[in-house]
Amino acid sequence: MKTYSNANLIRKHQKGVLAIGNFDGIHLGHQKVIQDAKKKAIKNKLPFGIMTFEPVPVMFFNKRIKSHRINSLHQKINQFKKFKLDFLIIIKFNKKFSKLSAEQFIEKIIFKNTKTLKKFENKFNYKNLITKPFKMNKKVISSTLIRKKIREGKIKEVNKLLNRNWVVDGKVIKGNKRGRKIGFPTCNLKMGNYIIPRLGVYAVKVKSSNFNKKGVANIGYRPTFNGQSLLLETNIFGINKNLYNKVISVSFKKFIRGEKKFKDVEYLKKQIKIDIKQAKK
Known about the structure:
By secondary structure, this protein is an alpha/beta fold.
């Protein structure tokens, strides 16, 4: 898969089939669009590619939106690779790009809505392949719906809509070592631009370059210790070594309980033991 940062494609990629979108989450609806486009490419013996945008446009237009993404760009690229593309175009969404008219975009790059795309088909010599919205239980699957379900802690539903587990990647940072002191060491991650799930405890699976283990994670502010910053803290079963600065992937499997302030550390320890039993089921 060749990656471009603009639409200046090499000759063999210039006449092909292109799926265009933000593709945040690459959920079942996105997968249908990509698969339909790929089938069209195979049928017509044409190269197949995807065009996406970075950052997500809504985050460009509203700088106050920080916690929005279902997946990172790195995750998105890895998911795209699974479709065996010939090429990927990652367009930098900036002020200049945002001011392009629909016709300018089609002329210089390609886009807008289906009516506008239809209008300019003959002028710019391309054809549209419009995919119907993908539905599950009579609801259109969208990134907006998935973000809502993540915020509600409905992780099992989210994973069905993604057709895989929702994952947060990050570099392990130093914490206050409270987990280690009470017998439950954790790896701490900042959430960055990821959408914030319902605060509380989750059963997870954790991967790094040299292990793949089950675990229990808490996303929240640690109210028992009057914490102020949001952290994803994960106790990885069978791992007791220092993982500072290592990149790990935390895969969410199910929601266990909401975040709670405990009377004291002993009550917290009892609850963590119960949470671990739930996570191991």
